[in-house]
Amino acid sequence: MASSEVAPGRPRPRPLSPHLQIYRFTVTMVMSILHRITGVGLYVGVLLLAWFLIAASTDAAAFGWFTAFIQSFIGRLVLFGFTWALFNHMLGGIRHFIWDAGYGLEAPTRDQLAWIGAIGGLALTFITFAIGYAVR
Amino acid sequence: MSGKTGGLRTPLTRVRFLGTAQKGTGEARLIHVTGLANILLGLYFVWLILDVLHKDYNGVRATLGNPINAILLLAFILSGIVHMEIGMRSVIVDYVDGRMRALALMANTCFCALLAVACVYATLRVSFT
């Protein structure tokens, strides 16, 4: 045991419960992790919204800087990521509301709900971008 | 300090994140309420962005300055930032310990407060100038 190697007089490290590395990956588990990651992503992504609003409230030159970024390849990639994070997190939230209400917790249904979130999040992102490119 | 946690607990235990903060229910309720609001306001927000996507500077300002859009955008900003403040707090509490936890929690609150002020100010400025 690693704890026996600790020098005498120092407190033994507390035992840790097993974490990610010992579990088999399941769809509900991956979607749970993605829910947290997309949440953190949206947290950072709100800076983009702040930039957009501040630029729009400043002047045409400031707004030009924002549009130049968002229309660039990197900008579109960031916006795509933000959109996917938003929809993935939104569907994850709906899934959690369903579970909180006590529905859909059985083995097949909970996996189906997780898959709906995974595929639905991507589908809604592609649909949104399709509309964005189509409508002018 | 709330009366419920009086007894033998000292304020120091709360500062050191020992034991319950007695705030969980209110926070859990708030993240659910804002989450529900964010579903509706988030869908509206996507629609709003698609609406302004191909507009020029004056067109964007005219759309954002429309009272209905400004009101719903402000609601999304506030509901969204309250939601993300609580969400990030739970992430910090899960992964960060000790003094870094206190600093991270303060940084989270300050970042969210500043972001909220900036977004609200900018939205109102588009409407009123």
Q: From N to C, what is the helix and strand string of chain A?
A: HHHH
Q: Note the total helix count of chain B.
A: 5
CATH class designation of chain B: Mainly Alpha
The major pleated sheet of chain B works out as: none
- End-to-end gap of chain A: 65 Å
Evaluate the radius of gyration of chain A: 22 Å
Output the CATH homologous superfamily of chain A.
Fumarate reductase/succinate dehydrogenase, transmembrane subunit
CATH topology of chain B: 3 helical TM bundles of succinate and fumarate reductases
The SSE order of chain B reads HHHHH
What low-confidence regions of chain A span 5 or more consecutive residues with pLDDT below 50?
none
User: So, CATH architecture of chain A?
Assistant: Up-down Bundle
Overall pLDDT of chain A: 92
| Beta-strand proportion of chain A | under 5%
How many helices of chain A does DSSP assign? 4
Q: Helical amount among residues of chain B, as a percent range?
A: over 70%
> What is the tally of beta strands of chain B?
0
Structural class of chain A: mainly alpha
Helix content of chain A: over 70%
- Based on CA atoms alone, the radius of gyration of chain B comes out at 19 Å
Summarize it:
Chain A is mostly helical and 136 residues long.
What does it look like?
The complex is a heterodimer of chains A (136) and B (129). Chain A has 136 residues and is an all-alpha fold. In chain A, 74% of the residues lie in helices and 0% in strands. Chain A contains four helices and no strands. The N and C termini of chain A lie far apart (65 Å). Chain B is mostly helical. Chain B has a single domain, classed as Up-down Bundle (3 helical TM bundles of succinate and fumarate reductases), CATH 1.20.1300. Chain B has five helices and no strands. The longest helix of chain B has 31 residues. At the A-B interface, helix 1, helix 2, helix 3 and helix 4 of A face helix 2, helix 3, helix 4 and helix 5 of B.
